[in-house]
Here is the input.
Amino acid sequence: MSRLPFLDNVYPGENNFWRYFFTIILIWGAPIILGIMISIFFMTYLLTQGFDASYLVENFTSNPLIFMLFIAITYVISFFFLYIGVRYIHQRKFMSLVTTESRFNWKRFWKGGLAWFALLSLSLVLSMILDPGSLKLNFNLNPFILILVLSLLIFPVQASFEELFFRGYLMQGLGLLTKKPVILLIVTSLIFSLPHYFNGSYTILSVDLVLQAFILGLTLGIITLGENGLETAMGVHIFNNIFATVIVSHPEDMGLNMPSLFTSLSSPDPVIDTLGIAIFGLILLVIIFWGKKEDVFRLFRRDNSVEGK
Here is the structure.
C-alpha cells in the first residue's frame, strides 16, 4: 500500500483497464449525445412555435444564461454516470473518491472556499487601487440576481464533478500505474488544464487560461494528497468559479458577456497572470497546511511510493 492513503481508496474495487475506459466514455460521451438530443428537441419545439431559426441559434450560442443552463444539464449527466461507473462498474463506494474518512469534512470545504474567495477579493481591491481603468462596474440588479442564483445552483455540481473526476477518479486510477505522486500531480493538472484552451476567444487568452488552470490544478492536487481528501479542493474550485462569473468576468472568456458585478478590461498577460495565481496558490497552501507542513513535504520525498494491492 502507499504512504498516501487517498490513492489506496481504489482498493477494494475492480480496476481492470476496460472498466476505466468504459466509465470515461460514459462520463464524457453520454452528455454530448444526450445534450445534442435535448438541443435538437428544444430547437424543434421552438421552431414549431414560430420562433426564427437564426434568432434561436444566435441566442443559444451567445446568451450566457442559456449557456449556463446547458452546462448545468451536461454536468448533471456527467455526475450521474461518474456515480454509476464508480459504484457499479468499479464496485466501490462513491465516497472513496472524496476522502479516506467516513464522512464529508465540511470544515475543510468552507475553509478552502472562503480562503480562496478572500484572496481573489484582495486581488480585486488591489486592481481597483493600482489600475482602476482595468475594471468596469457592470451592476444591473435583475440579471445580476439571476446569474448569482444560477451560479449557486450550477457551480457546486460542475466544480465538484471536475474535482471528483480529475483529482479523484483520474488521480487514483493513474496511481495504479506510477509510484511517483509528483507525476500524478503533473499529469492530472495537464489533463485538467488543456480543455481550458477552448474557453478563450483568441490565442493569448487561451494560453493564459491554460497556464492558470494548470497552476490551480497543481495547487488543488497537492492539497488533495496532503489532506487525503477532496473537500478543500472542491470548496476552492466552487468559490473560484462563482467569483469569476458573479464578481469579475472577462468578456472574451468563452465569448460571453456575463452580467457580473465587474467586467475586466485588462488584456491577458500569461506571465504576470501565471505568476499571480502561483503566488496565491502558495499563500493558500500556507493557510491550509499551517502547522502541518509535513503533510506537504512527504509528497515530494523520493521514497514515496504507490504499490499494488
Remarks:
- The chain has a mean pLDDT of 89.
- The longest strand covers residues 135-137.
